[in-house]
Design a protein that fits this description.
heterodimer; A: about 140 residues; mainly beta; 1 helix; globular; B: alpha/beta; Peroxisomal Thiolase, Chain A, domain 1; nine-stranded mixed sheet; two-stranded antiparallel ribbon; 11 helices; about 30% helix; binds zinc ion
Chain lengths: ~140, ~375
């Protein structure tokens, strides 16, 4: 039994930028936020100032339901830094709204991970300021 | 037809310094300087004839060798820095350019992976991403889509590591030979990558000298840049590495980064993949070689796994790949040197001067840098015949 779990405090902590402050603020309040172009609806890989598709400069923050499907994953046994507890499972999750999220899967065993696996966001704080959005099978 | 853009640019000197796990008494600038001096000695050109220096240590090299006033380009990329050097000559800005890079004294904490593998970008750092995991997220999609297997990945690692095993200049000389089972038996790092599917880390430097064609009278075997180009989708290790990401509805996917670069490079050269005699591919992780073989057109999409499993990339195969042992076995000093070293090896192949795994009568070599996990990929074609 190797249950994938959120990381303990002590791992390197993300430093928000002026563009992402709102995203991290949402995460702290257990809300998964993403940006969408108000003009054409396009969603980027991260917060943006100009829409890559229609070039409008009107991104708006939206709240995701936090539901999505597993798109790709790895299981790490040799961490980049000893503060990470192994194994852990970095993953790309495709949110139902169409957002590509980089995260990690928790709440299941590595052997359960499969393409299209349904997942739901789960928030875990790693510092006073930063809460990370993890993903787990719904109900776990 | 207009003349080839690099018709008046020749590669006349290449050099690798000693490569080792640790090179005492060196930092990145000093080992890059030795790479530059070695390449100039190989070219038979006095350092004082240099009027352009390209690479991360270019300013230090200009000062150390007293080259001022000279052109300086602090390029931190491998193949693009060679193409930049070629452009400096082709446009008449310089006559003798040395490209150099080296890494030493950087990876000093053994409890961590090498610093250049640990991005601190806000969207990745908290999830423990590092280069192996980033590339694994790309490899997984290929395995799901095409049925590519861990054994096929291991076939790449076994081939390249065995190339290094026989190369006395490789940091991991004599450590093999390696079978597919050896790779699969090594401990898991970031599934599907075992330890031996991953690049090593080491220290070393290298240099490449380019001159205007008039100066090749002194050179016994000038080589020529037949084509080159670069692809990028954005910053490496800052956003999710998504195989199917398309910036525009009709754009190629991030998983095929390098396809456009290869098309442009082959077009500039007037060649096709079938013309390539040896491919010095960048090998940060075993899967990346399979991906590049497909992306550059050496085989079809999804066929890379069987292509490598069928022995095509071995030293006696239809397309020998990464013949010095690459970043997996030859050396991986970071700071760009390991990317330039693909070009150094290609030049050695075309001159017929390789100590091991020399490809007979090699006329054309393709080199690559980067990879899908880093969202960039560069391609250069070198040849013996002036374009
Ligand atoms: Zn838009």
């Amino acid at each position: 039994m190797t249950l994938l779990q959120p990381q303990p405090r002590g791992i390197p902590v993300p430093r928000p930028s002026v563009h992402s402050e709102k995203y991290w603020e949402g995460s702290r309040q257990h809300q998964l936020l993403y940006q969408r172009c108000a003009a054409c609806g396009h969603i980027g890989l991260r917060a943006f100032t100009v829409c890559a598709r229609c070039l409008a400069t009107s991104p708006v923050w939206e709240r995701s339901t936090g539901a999505g499907a597993l798109y790709s994953w790895t299981v790490v046994w040799r961490p980049p830094d000893p503060s990470f507890k192994v194994p852990y499972a970095p993953a790309v999750v495709r949110l139902d709204e169409g957002v590509w999220m980089l995260s990690a899967v928790i709440g299941c065993e590595p052997g359960e991970l499969h393409d299209g696996m349904r997942l739901a966001v789960q928030f875990h704080a790693i510092s006073e300021e930063i809460t990370l959005p993890y993903f787990a099978p719904p109900g776990r | 037809m207009p003349p080839h853009p690099f018709r008046n640019v020749a590669v006349v000197g290449v050099h690798n310094t000693a490569q080792a796990r640790h090179l005492a008494g060196h930092d990145s600038a000093s080992i890059a300087l030795l790479g530059a001096l070695g390449a100039l000695a190989d070219a038979g050109i006095s350092p004082h004839d240099v009027d352009g220096v390209v690479g991360p240590a270019s300013a230090e090299i200009a000062l150390e060798l007293g080259l001022g006033p000279c052109t300086r380009r602090p390029s931190a990329l491998g193949i693009p820095s060679v193409l930049d050097a070629a452009a400096l000559i082709a446009t008449g800005q310089c006559d003798v350019v040395v490209v150099a890079a080296g890494g030493a004294g950087i990876h000093i904490d053994p409890s961590t992976t090498a610093p250049w593998t640990r991005p601190t970008n806000e969207l990745v750092v908290g999830f423990g991403l590092f280069t192996a995991a980033e590339f694994a997220l790309m490899a997984r999609r290929h395995m799901l889509t095409y049925g590519t297997t861990p054994e096929q990945l291991a076939a790449v690692a076994a081939t390249i590591r065995t190339n290094g095993h026989v190369n006395p200049e490789a940091v991991y000389y004599g450590r093999g030979p390696f079978s597919v089972d050896d790779i699969l038996a090594s401990r898991m790092i970031a599934d599907p990558f075992h330890l031996l599917d991953c690049a090593t880390t080491s220290e070393g430097g290298c240099g490449i000298v380019l001159v205007s064609a008039e100066r090749t009278i002194d050179s016994p075997s000038p080589l020529w840049i037949l084509g080159g180009a670069s692809d990028s989708f954005g910053p490496a290790y800052a956003v999710a590495p998504v195989w199917d990401f398309r910036p525009q509805p009709d754009a190629d996917t991030a998983g095929r980064v390098g396809a456009r670069a290869a098309r442009r490079a082959f077009s500039m050269a007037g060649l096709t993949p079938a013309d390539v005699d040896v491919a010095e591919l960048y090998d940060p992780f075993s899967f990346e070689v399979i991906r590049q073989l497909e992306t550059f057109g050496f085989c079809g999409d999804g066929e890379g796994g069987s292509f490598v499993e069928d022995g095509n990339i071995g030293p006696n195969g239809s397309l020998p790949v990464t013949t010095d042992g690459g970043t997996m076995s030859f050396s991986h000093p970071g700071i760009n040197a390991q990317q330039l070293q693909r070009v150094v090896r290609a030049a050695q192949q075309l001159r017929g001067s390789c100590l091991t795994n020399q490809v007979e009568e090699a006329e054309v070599s393709l080199c690559s840098n980067g990879g899908a996990g880093a969202l960039f990929c560069d391609v250069i074609l070198l040849g013996r015949e002036r374009p």
